[in-house]
Design brief:
Keywords: Hydrolase. Helices cover about 20% and strands about 25% of the residues. The radius of gyration is 15 Å and the shape is globular. The chain is an alpha+beta fold.
């Protein structure tokens, strides 16, 4: 994959690329949105802790496909309040800490999820040869 960061537009606001090119013939994995809930049905109060769970779940899904966080082409994330953006971004940056090529990224503020205690939802698009 190739990160696309044209020099004639404003640089990204954080650690992401404006676009990612996926080569022809690569396998693609699209995850469902992952919520901050553990296998034991625990939901932390804090947005950061919920986002960490989202990314742990994504890591497990990628592993099932023989992929790693380095194979993520795009991250889409949703938070229920601007106050949750920093916690989400901290968890996202931890997920990508060892990743050399940065994915593209979208972050939206939404009115809510299926249960009011959820603050963060994350999905990814990944690709590998």
């Amino acid at each position: 994959m190739k990160s696309l960061v044209p020099s004639n537009i404003r640089p990204p606001f954080a650690r992401y690329a404006h676009g990612v090119e996926i080569p022809a013939g690569w396998r693609i994995v699209q995850t469902s949105g992952q919520l901050g809930i553990t296998a034991e049905d625990d939901i932390p109060e804090d947005a950061f802790d919920q986002a960490v769970i989202c990314f742990e779940n994504i890591r497990a899904i990628l592993k099932e496909a023989g992929m790693t966080p380095g194979d993520v082409a795009h991250i889409s994330a949703y938070v229920t309040d601007r106050a949750h953006m920093a916690g989400y971004m901290q968890a996202r940056d931890q997920f990508k800490a060892d990743v050399e090529r940065l994915p593209s990224s979208t972050l939206l503020i939404v009115s809510g999820f299926t249960r009011p205690e959820f603050k963060v939802e994350v999905e990814v698009l990944a690709a590998a040869p």
